[in-house]
Amino acid sequence: MIPEPSESVAPTPVFFLAGGTGISAETLGNLMLAQFPSLSFRRRKIPFITTVEQAREVVAELDAATTDSVTALVFSTVSDEEIRKELQRTEGAFIDLFGSHLDTVERVLHVNATHGVGALHGVGDTRRYDARMKAIEFAMEHDDGASLRNLEQADLILVAPSRCGKTPTSMYLALQHGLKVANYPLVPEDFDTGDLPRPIKDLQGKCFGLLSTAARLSQVRGERRPGSTYASLAQCSYELRRAEALYRAHRIPSINSAAMSVEEMAAVIMQTSRLGNLA
């Protein structure tokens, strides 16, 4: 049986390595780390490792973080075989999120993988890249109700009171999955009638609601506008209650974002809304 860690244990150093942006390594690694909520971690992402020389420098950093009392955890999605072999020389615990499964994929497809540096993040696929860029532009244009132009073209419309996580979730869904996501803020005036705001009233089927806890929402708002009515616990409680009632009345699915990462929220939203990866 593994003993419970004491509070005096130093944070475990965690590294996310990639030949591209590192988003996949970070996402997958953090999903695993989330299974150990009692532990603390010191995270560092090292993206764009494209040469063996860079890999050697990275290994030196990894080994410096590994001591007699703590072993560095290393999550890697590096696809280049030569670079990956160099990284595996580390004294840290190397978790190969790419190569460890590649043999299985090759066997099923009956085709050898290219092991190219750019293969993972798909820059070579112009259509995929363009689709994601258009999705990001759409999300930026339609952030927080800033624009109502072509709103009907949205794959998804996130609806929520201010500071419930609409913007980062919209951007993540656009960047990672190529979804055109608009987000629309609910303000106190929207709760008076019980109807959906006019701009999204006819787009109910595309809507997805976000909630939080009053304590968490008050904390987040307080960092932006300390001491304001906007950030008060009473105001946050009121808006969340009314938002939840609005979602229920109009059969809009919703999730509580208070204790969820953006990655988890995106996964639940896509599954609930039956949205696939469009890019």
TrEMBL record:
Record's catalysed reaction(s): [pyruvate, water dikinase]-phosphate + phosphate + H(+) = [pyruvate, water dikinase] + diphosphate; [pyruvate, water dikinase] + ADP = [pyruvate, water dikinase]-phosphate + AMP + H(+)
Molecular functions (GO terms): ADP binding; ATP binding; phosphotransferase activity, phosphate group as acceptor; protein serine/threonine kinase activity
Positions contributing to ADP binding: 160-167
Xref: InterPro entries: Kinase-pyrophosphorylase (IPR005177), PSRP (IPR026530)
Keyword Ligase recorded: no
EC number: 2.7.11.33, 2.7.4.28
Keywords: Kinase, Nucleotide-binding, Serine/threonine-protein kinase, Transferase
The keyword Transferase is annotated on this UniProt entry: yes
Domain of life where this protein originates: Bacteria
Protein's job: Bifunctional serine/threonine kinase and phosphorylase involved in the regulation of the phosphoenolpyruvate synthase (PEPS) by catalyzing its phosphorylation/dephosphorylation.
Family: Belongs to the pyruvate, phosphate/water dikinase regulatory protein family. PSRP subfamily.
Name of the protein described by the UniProt record: Putative phosphoenolpyruvate synthase regulatory protein
Record organism: Pedococcus dokdonensis
Taxonomic lineage: Bacteria, Bacillati, Actinomycetota, Actinomycetes, Micrococcales
